[in-house]
Amino acid sequence: MANVEMLTNGQFQAVYNVLSLALAAMGATTIFLLVVQARVLPRYRVAVVVSAMVCLIAAYHYFRIFNSFSDAYVAIEAGAPGVQDSYQLVKGVGFNEGYRYVDWLLTVPLLLFETIAVLALPRAVRSSLLWKLIPASALMIILGFPGEITNEIAPKAVWGALSTIPFIYILYVLFVELSRAAKSQPNQVGKELAGLRWLLLATWGVYPISYMFPMFGLDGADSFVYRQIGYSVADVLAKCLFGLLIYKIARIKSFDDDPAFEAQETKDIPVKKADASA
Amino acid sequence: MANVEMLTNGQFQAVYNVLSLALAAMGATTIFLLVVQARVLPRYRVAVVVSAMVCLIAAYHYFRIFNSFSDAYVAIEAGAPGVQDSYQLVKGVGFNEGYRYVDWLLTVPLLLFETIAVLALPRAVRSSLLWKLIPASALMIILGFPGEITNEIAPKAVWGALSTIPFIYILYVLFVELSRAAKSQPNQVGKELAGLRWLLLATWGVYPISYMFPMFGLDGADSFVYRQIGYSVADVLAKCLFGLLIYKIARIKSFDDDPAFEAQETKDIPVKKADASA
């Protein structure tokens, strides 16, 4: 997709600040998850560590995206000196949208991996689910890219439609096959898992909508700004919030597996006992 | 090898994004392996830590390669402002391919070291294998370099052939001598080890093929782009995926050595017992 030529001061600031917000959120979630991963039973740690890696990879890409964006535009003065009225695309630099696709190519398979890993399913079930989800997710992203970089409507629609096929397959595996496999999970985990899947559906839904903006004739600076904000907010929810939910599920399952661990980690049980005896 | 004078926008973006992808993958795998190395028995940890160091060294070099590449070319406008039609080599800067050879000189011996280390063979066997593999791998890379930097076909072929001799010797040691030494490994480890060797053969095979491009008359910008993508993808597989397989083997061997450790680290055993009794 060709870069937008001109942004108003407000448009530039909105994108600039939301990109920085995403970078800060990704970085902090990375460190948080790395520090707390030891607070779940060993069998759930890989899910939490992989969640941290997703945020780390995204933090790296937001750092690159932020720099690419701020290098790509230069303020043009109009009116009183010092008042920047607009931002002009710098010739020969350009804002690289490719980073987002590289990021998704690495992080989306990992997000699906952590979703499966946190359930500690029997090895054969886990392996079968991953062999379905991970290739499908890579295919979904690879098929979307040619549509993202073109400005023509027809190929955009074709690539978008092709990319939707693996997306629907992933939803089928997550909502039908995974439900079957996760039946034996504790009640509270079932609820959290449902939340995880709906979060995934809601945030991943932002990407195709943003992708289709140019097909609806939304093609100017406003569309660009909404797309950047939409992608960034969706990324923060799909990676940071998602990672924190993975950690929450890992905690619930750890407590469910080992009451002694729960007693040590929370004060709930001893406090209640003390209250009852008092 | 002389740098390519001109790249189209698409060619430049492809190399730029694949270099960034490799950097992100190497960095995240480094941190991941450093965090999870404690999750194998102490006797296997050195193999996992060395795998992390391989990824760290490669991350450093991809950072340098990425910067070297993006500094070496400048966008040239042709047509509408903001539309980058091509990238021109900046005079007096140049893209440094030497980083790749320095990287391989450090990481290839370490990759062979981690392959042997994770098997926890008897000291004498391990030492004998390493004394064969490590000097051969250094020789292989040193002999390849003069052929890489020349544009003439004859010396390229001679250095390539010389470099192939230690390569074939390494394959002999890995596929014949190592098989003999690893006979007493658990079944599952035998399978993983076979996977490791084939991954090594498949990824290392990319390097001589890329090296030979100019000998087949593939010498322009396309050849340059395919070579960069080929090297980068091969590096990600040969270092990140390879390191993760080393970790997997270390886990399998840890579980095999100590069932109590397995029970604590996975839920497979307790879950099955619980299901059976339910």
Q: Judging by the overall fold, what is the CATH architecture of chain A?
A: Up-down Bundle
Terminal Cα span of chain A: 69 Å
Biggest interface and residues each: A-B, 36 and 32 residues
Mean pLDDT of chain A: 87
Shape of chain A: globular
Strand arrangement, major sheet of chain A? 1-3-2
User: In terms of per-residue confidence, which ranges of chain A show pLDDT below 50 for 5 or more consecutive residues?
Assistant: none
CATH homologous superfamily identity of chain A:
Rhodopsin 7-helix transmembrane proteins
Helix and strand element order of chain A? EHHEEHHHHHHH
Rg estimate of chain A, integer Å:
22 Å
Tell me what you see in this structure.
2 copies of one chain form a homodimer. Chain A has 278 residues and is mainly alpha-helical. The first copy, chain A, has one domain: Rhopdopsin 7-helix transmembrane proteins. Helix content of chain A is 77%, strand content 5%. Chain A has a 3-stranded antiparallel beta sheet. Chain A is globular, with a radius of gyration of 22 Å. Chains A and B meet through helix 2 and helix 3 of A and helix 1, strand 2 and helix 9 of B.
Structure described in brief:
The structure is a homodimer of 278-residue chains. Chain A is mostly helical and 278 residues long.
List the helices and strands and how they pair.
Two copies of one chain form a homodimer.
Chain A: E1 6-8, H1 9-36, H2 42-72, E2 73-77, E3 84-89, H3 98-117, H4 123-149, H5 153-181, H6 187-212, H7 221-257, H8 259-265, H9 268-277
Antiparallel strand pairs in A: 1-3, 2-3
Helix pairs in contact in A: 1-2, 1-7, 2-3, 2-7, 3-4, 4-5, 5-6, 6-7, 7-8
